[in-house]
Amino acid sequence: MQQRIQLTLFAEPEETLLIEKVRKAFNPVQFALIRAHVTLCREDMLLQKDMVLKHLSHTAHPFITIRFGKPARFAEGRGLFLPATEDTQFQLLRSHILQDISCPVIAQEPHITLIHPRNATCTDAIFEEVCRMKLPEQLTFKRVSLIEQINGKEWKPLREFPLRG
Q1: For residue 15, what is the DSSP state?
Q2: Predicted confidence (pLDDT) at residue 76 exceeds the cutoff of 90
Q3: What confidence category does residue 155 fall into, taking pLDDT thresholds of 50, 70 and 90?
Q4: For 59-76, b where at least 16 C-beta lie within 10 A, e where not — what string?
Q5: Is the dihedral of CA 16, 21, 27, 29 positive or negative?
Q6: Which residue of 13, 31, 40, 105 has the lowest C-beta tally within 10 Å?
Q7: Which UniProt keywords apply (predicted)?
Q8: 97 is in which domain, residue-wise?
Q9: Cβ distance 64 to 90 under 8 Å?
Q10: DSSP 8-state code for residue 165
Q11: Total structural domains in the chain?
């Protein structure tokens, strides 16, 4: 059995309607696996999961609002994502929950993947179409979710940690 876990930020569904429409149309495999999200900590940062979850349980961090730029391609143009234009709140939350963790903390730039190159390919036509859309310029995140994936199937929530409004 292959298990993966991560800490993820899911925006409110009403804020991501157009993003989800893009993902469903151009990346249905990834759309079926996980909702639009910003990854806060990947599994390699969660080797001391109990300590990280303790920090999360005791956080009084406010909601996080992330501003996003224009869609950009990655992975030699095969992938498409919305990069964050500012990430101070994101980085502060990461610093708080990863304090006193003995493994090296790998930088994580917040973004929302629209087309994951493992499951789909962004063509020039798709890129132009998505760039013409009025995608959200910012999203507000009200909770941190601990999620799990077993054997490459759909990601499932295990626990949620509310942020303070």
Answers
A1: G
A2: yes
A3: very high
A4: bebeebebebeebebbee
A5: positive
A6: 13
A7: Ligase
A8: 3-162
A9: yes
A10: -
A11: 1
CATH of the domain at 57: 3.90.1140.10
Side chain identity at residue 36, one-letter code: A
The amino acid present at 109, given as its one-letter code, is: E
The candidate with the shortest Cα–Cα distance to 155, out of 43, 25, 18, is: 43
The first and second tokens of residue 28, run together, are 């249905």
Q: Find, among 54, 40, 135, the residue nearest to 87 by Cα.
A: 40
- Mean pLDDT to the nearest integer, 140-151: 97
Q: Which residue has the tokens 């309607």?
A: 17
Q: How many CB atoms lie within 10 A of CB 46?
A: 21
* Nearest one of 143, 147, 32, 30 to 81, comparing CA atoms: 30
What percentage of the chain exceeds 90 in pLDDT?
Answer: 79
Taking a C-beta distance cutoff of 8 angstroms, is the pair 120, 30 a contact? Answer: yes
